[in-house]
Amino acid sequence: MKRLALSSALLLFLNGCASTSDLEETRRQLAQVNQQATNRIAAVETKLSNDKLLEMVSQVDSLKAEVAKLRGDVEVLNYNLQTTQKRQNDLYNDLDGRLGKLEGAPGKQDASQPAAQQQAAVAGDSQSAPDYDKALNLLRSRDFPRAINALSLFIQQNPQAPQAAEASYWLGVAHTALRQYDSAIDIHRRFVEQYPNSHFAPEALRNIGNCQRDLGQVDQAKATYRRLIKLYPKTDSAQKAKQALAKL
Question: 118-122 contacts: CB < 8 A, separation 24 or more?
Fold first, then answer.
């Protein structure tokens, strides 16, 4: 009996040792698996971090390119704005100077009209002059939309009036002031054809060239300036045309 009890105790001890060894092996394997998993997770996180960093760098480069483009666009817009403002101020200064010469001279006769036609219009001049002066006053106050309406109405109602030719010229100027360049070119072109001897003809040609220049029609503008210089070489308009031609 004592021997049997001792054998049983020894068997139980050996079984316990085998179970402990298996448990240790299992723990070792789990630790290895955990380490491998940790390493893989770290590798994935590193890759994701690198990809995110590359994406951010790419986005920064794109933003820099967009900012550079926007800066370039702003510089171009500023230049165009300054150029437009200068040309607009030049137009206003010319307008004020031209209108200033008409102060105190309402109903002034245009040399482009035949004498007989001027005499025939004298009878109605006293009635038409106030309407013409009203249109000029609208120009002086730079109310160009109303000036266009007033001048168009005056020309329509008083086609034979001494001021009709001048009214046509000022109508083109008013359209120019509103940057309605195509209309201004058409009006001034017809004015030059109808009244080539008018003292406004050189300025009408110069205005055509200016409108063509502002429309980007450089070749046409050059041709117009050269025509002005050729037809009216001794005028102030021709000198200004030379200056504008040199800048194109």
Answer: 118/162, 120/160, 121/158, 121/160, 121/161, 121/162, 122/162
Which carries the bigger pLDDT value, residue 55 or residue 146?
A: 146
Count of H helices and E strands in the chain? 8, 0
CA–CA distance, 111 with 199 (Å, rounded to integer)? 7
Q: How far apart are CA 170 and CA 185, in angstroms?
A: 12
Picking from 204, 211, 195, the residue whose alpha carbon sits closest to that of residue 169 is 204
Name, of 28-32, 82-86, 105-109, 170-174, the range with top average pLDDT: 170-174
Q: What span, in angstroms and rounded, lies between the C-alpha atoms of 227 and 209?
A: 10
Average pLDDT over residues 4-16: 51
Distances (CA, A) of 15 to 3, 9, 19, 27: 18, 10, 6, 18
**Which bin fits 179, alpha (ψ -120 to 50), beta or left (φ > 0)?**
left
Q: How confident is residue 101, by pLDDT bands cut at 50, 70 and 90?
A: low
Integer Cα distance of 50 and 77 in angstroms: 40
Q: How confident is the model at residue 123 (pLDDT cuts 50, 70, 90)?
A: very low
